[in-house]
Amino acid sequence: xxxxxxxxxxxxxxxxxxxxxxxxxxxxxxxxxxxxxxxxxxxxxxxxxxxxxxxxxxxxxxxxxxxxxxxxxxxxxxxxxxxxxxxxxxxxxxxxxxxxxxxxxxxxxxxxxxxxxxxxxxxxxxxxxxxxxxxxxxxxxxxxxxxxxxxxxxxxxxxxxxxxxxxxxxxxxxxxxxxxxxxxxxxxxxxxxxxxxxxxxxxxxxxxxxxxxxxxxxxxxxxxxxxxxxx
Length: 231
Description:
By secondary structure, this protein is α/β, with parallel strands linked by helices. The protein has 2 domains: 10-61, no CATH class; 66-214, Aspartate/ornithine carbamoyltransferase (Rossmann fold), CATH 3.40.50.1370. Helix content is 40%, strand content 13%. The protein has helices spanning 21-28, 42-51, 66-80, 97-109, 136-140, 160-166, 174-178, 200-205, 207-230, and strands at 35-38, 56-60, 87-91, 112-116, 130-133, 145-148, 185-188. Helix 4 links the parallel strand 3 and strand 4 (112-116). The model has no long low-confidence stretch (mean pLDDT 96).
């Protein structure tokens, strides 16, 4: 797109020496035309954006993953038309960043989101477009889109054994897909752990859509950058 990028890890900047994120924002806004931040704490992105006078993109935090959900919706609409009025079933950890972003997206795009998750992993944020259930079959019934993600997000590796037990029964498999609409789409954030959150059979059946979804990250992120620069 003709731009130039600079990659900075914490060790490459004064953040690694304890500089507050708001001071880093004040410095960088004088040197670059935008910032894309991928980090752990959601507050860091919000504090940076509140201070910096440049476009700031949340590329992932523990709390949100908005660019990914824009890609997911783009992929659905590319293949199935408008997501407005459709039913999206999210099966798995409803407290994770990707589920949270689906929750926030639902009222903006006017679709119904049904989260199937154990009680311990309920989404802390809901709205009138969102329901939370225990039974994945209830979520999948008449769904236009079934979505899943790994049960063990980055930084939660120590919880792998417990989560493996907690999410037994929350797998996207043939029985779940049969409950959805005949033209249902299945999406996965990737990487996928076959035999855990999704079966090998279903992943391969919907591989074309899932890997188009992965490719579309490039195109959607280009669109986000173009929109931010042009506006």
